[in-house]
Amino acid sequence: MGLGRVFYFRALVVDRLAVVRHSVSISASQMQRAMKQTRPVLIWVMAIGLVGASLPAWARFQVPPPCKNAFTVEQEQTEGAKVAAEVFKQMPVLPDGSPISQYIRQLGGKLVAVTPGYRWPFNFHVVASEEINAFALPGGAMFVNLGTIQAAETESQLAGVMAHELSHVVMRHSTCNMTKQQSVGTWAALGQLGAAIALGNGALGSMASQGIGMAAGLGFLRMSREYEKQADLLGADILYDAGFDPRGLPQFFETIEAKYGEGGAQIFSDHPNPGNRTQYVNAEIATLPPRANPRVTSAEFTRARELAKKEKTYNAKEVQAGAWRQTGNYALVAGGPGQVIPSPASSNGQGAPIGRLSRASLGLNDRMVPYQGRAFSVNYPASWQKAEGKNGNVAFVPPNGAGQSGIAYGAMIDGVKFQTPVRDANSLAQATTAIAQQISQQNGGMQQASDLTTLTIGGQPANAVELRGRSPVSDGGSTLVERDLLVTVARPDGGVSYMVFVAPEPDYPTLKPLFSSMIQSFQVK
């Protein structure tokens, strides 16, 4: 019998007893009949209670039947642990001995004690990121950002975020996503976690923060609205069963949305609002018998939050820059002490520099195939791989042209809107300069290598400028210089589409005609 039925029968017992207790006109014979009807169920429930005392007593949400999943539980745990190990290398994770980490681990333990289903080996960690977000990997490793702890106003709100993430693991949403994406057997794709989280040294490493990293290997962490709703409902029940005020879950999302707007915080990117979140969670809560004193907050939460406010946090650019690696404040492995963490470009084999590609592997003589994006179309070499981001951006890369340290060969196309619409040559030049500066800041201070030139692309005004910086490509033991071509195109709606073409400087002249062909094919919609 499924766990959902256990919940149902326990609720049924309470409903029947409620009739017995509150019907003032019930006769003695009716009372006896009611008790006889109830007793078998009571005995059965008592037996269940003796066998599994940790099972939730009131949860109403019916956990859906298992999804089509090509991964065994053992695979999910083993490979998820490998991904978690990459997080420690690519993000500033507080040591497990940190008081904040200890608190999150204790809070997680309270939730796990009442979490239904398979007993996943959950473990909890804290990332020194200012982003308001949390994520749970396949197999049960959860990472909570300091920004989330700082943003929560009560313990029940913080516990709500964590219960939501636990629910994704319980229902195996990540590997369900991977099965749907037909990426079964491509666990090596998870190795791209480095590029997706830490951004990287190449000019296109910043694509990760815009969604390309998800398309390239982490799409399984971005949940559908249906999965989000399921995690909300089960998460509210877990909160209740752990003794917390379940309203903390919708309250957290409401608080963040009121402060930043929907989409203004990273958590809304990874956790899309299914719509009416507050209404359906409150409807679920209404099915749970009210508690006299549900736990809303605690002195432990207050102390942990104050410590979190004092702790150093990093934004995405600072994580990318990697200065935190040398502080000795962050753990390299789960349970490990703070230590100096090797750079991804070190010679230890993890995230080693990309090797220089041969001329034959660049696809110079390929036929060009069309790509239809949301806001543009473009042709690209048939042998190149494409990775699409959640915001409509896309990257095209020749085989082996990208790695954990970034994209070394290829092209990226994206768009941006400024507060002042781009309507003339002067505003387009200003927009081009702003985009070039952002690329430079995100990639270790690239320098402008040419004057800005004006073009017409697909009938629209355009600009082009070359940039120069450090490539993730190593040749003969030496790191090469990178040459990038930034091309901006004014859009009829006042926005700007932009393309960035990337190659090590020695290969840039070879690839430039191919880049020019892509530019000539570009059309805004």
How many strand units? 19
> How much of the polypeptide forms β-strand, as a percent range?
15-25%
Radius of gyration: 27 Å
Number of helical runs? 18
Give the low-confidence spans.
1-59, 183-220, 345-352
Helicity range: 40-55%
Main sheet specs: 9 strands, mixed
Gap from first CA to last CA: 55 Å
Average pLDDT reading: 76
Number of structural domains: 3
Structural class label: alpha+beta
Query: What does the overall shape look like?
Result: elongated
Features:
Protein Transport Mog1p, Chain A; alpha+beta; nine-stranded mixed β-sheet; about 525 residues; 19 strands; disordered N terminus; three-stranded mixed β-sheet
Question: What report would you give on this structure?
Answer:
By secondary structure, the protein is of the alpha+beta class. The chain has three domains: 3-51; 73-321, no CATH class; 354-524, 3-Layer(aba) Sandwich (Protein Transport Mog1p, Chain A). Helices cover 42% and strands 18% of the residues. The chain has helices at 3-22, 28-51, 73-90, 99-112, 146-151, 155-170, 173-180, 193-198, 207-210, 212-218, 225-241, 248-260, 266-270, 277-286, 299-310, 316-321, 425-442, 508-521; strands spanning 123-127, 134-136, 141-145, 330-331, 338-339, 354-355, 368-372, 376-381, 385-388, 394-397, 402-403, 406-407, 410-416, 447-448, 453-457, 460-475, 478-490, 496-504, 523-524. Strands 6, 9, 10, 13, 14, 15, 16, 17 and 18 form a nine-stranded mixed sheet that branches. Strands 1-3-2 form a three-stranded mixed sheet, with helices on both faces. The protein has a three-stranded antiparallel sheet with strand order 7-8-19. Helix 6 packs across helix 11 and helix 6 (155-170) crosses helix 12. The model is unreliable at 1-59, 183-220 and 345-352 (pLDDT under 50).
